[in-house]
Amino acid sequence: MRSSSDFIQYSDKNDHYQYWFSYFRTLVDTETLQKKVMPALKSNDWKSLLELKNAIPIEEILLTTDTNTIKDKLLDGYIMVTLTEYGIHCLLIKATLNKARDVSLPEVEFSVVGPKEAFVESIESNINLIRKRIPDEKLRIRELQIGDLSKTKVAILCVEEIVDEENFRTVFQRINEIEFDQISDSSFITQMISDNHNSPFPQLLDTERPDRVASILAEGKVGVMVDGSPHVLIGPTTLVEFFSAFDDYFYNWVNASFIRLVRLFAVAFSILITPIYVAALTYHYELIPNDLLNTLISSRREVPLPPLLEALFLELTIELLREAGARLPTKVGQTIGIVGGIVIGTASVEAGLTSNILLIIVALSALASFTTPIYAMGNTIRMLRFPFLLFAEWLGLLGIMLCFCFLMTHLLKLTSLGRPFLEPIYPPRTADMKDSLIRLPFSLMAKRPQQLRPGKPIRFSIKKAKQNKDIDE
């Protein structure tokens, strides 16, 4: 370790002993060193490392001779104290420097109503946010360390007596068996423990909201926190959960159900509208009303490209604008997205590369794709449009139906931690439909989802709920 410039090894003495202490200055809190450790070292009240341990006002102190433990603790921000320069019998004092940003507003899942807290990169702070919302001894947290180089701390959370132990063991086993040198974010673990690594669909829910995680843990699911990541993974999950924003529970159930249905319609519109345009203009002119057909003909009169290339041109342009806006600095990215979209769209129509109608359709399709609350699922929706476009050019509406059949076959086979991904649609579970495509009142949610096989399936007594008139809206 001496080959590193930030490794400090210093010798000093008191009336009894000469002692050596070593540490990484970039990992140690110098205030803890100067105010708690050094005064105890310089005093004459100790004659052995055990007495020194009792003299230092720090809780986490370890006496050891294990070389691997010494190495790991030094790299974790501990101070090593020995009575000889190369002594292996040493005292390890925790003085870790914790640098983390404060709890801030959610950026990806922002909501107008509800809590305004989001996870940060510190796993200790994130666990604290969950503990505040579930102050119960049944909240179980198991910590692991993965990554040969990064030695990343991972915490697995669940609520005992509610969670299905099989789900917890599955998550624990898969994470414990990960063999990888560097784990930088929770997205690494998502890809490594998913049931199907080749599927474009995310099979674990990714969220930055502590209130959502606490609510889902109370249903009987398992959470995964990764040190250094401001996002928490939740599983097992279903397809419909990716289109449910946590804001839905802050509104009246009628309004929430309407918004959720609008969101699902927007997703279907985003995927299918451009392929339907290509299929109709390529094969199915007879399906277009005469008035609309005249408008389409006049709009495409000077366009030299076939419908497929015209649609691909605009779709790729939208994707380029999205990617450029995401990668550039915030203020520049917003300007590029707005100005670039207006300039390129207007110029492409005037140059005769695309029609006005398709420009409107693609813009609406892009707008509809932004309604997906979970960013990872939004990326999947963006990608799905392209195979549908190719199938529409190949076989028209029949090609769209064929592509849809392939998509449904894939979704029917897909699982999340061994649980059906399309539940409660397939296998059909009527009891779980109360919070899927629509959200029913809280008074009707007396049971936890059957798919999770919770240890306690009943959340509250229905009889008591009926007696209390104000339990719901």
Automatic annotation (TrEMBL):
Main localization category: membrane
Chain segments annotated as transmembrane: 261-283, 357-376, 388-412
Keyword Membrane: yes
Subcellular location: Cell membrane; Membrane
Domain of life: Bacteria
Family: Belongs to the GerABKA family.
Protein name: Spore germination protein
Organism, as annotated: Metabacillus halosaccharovorans
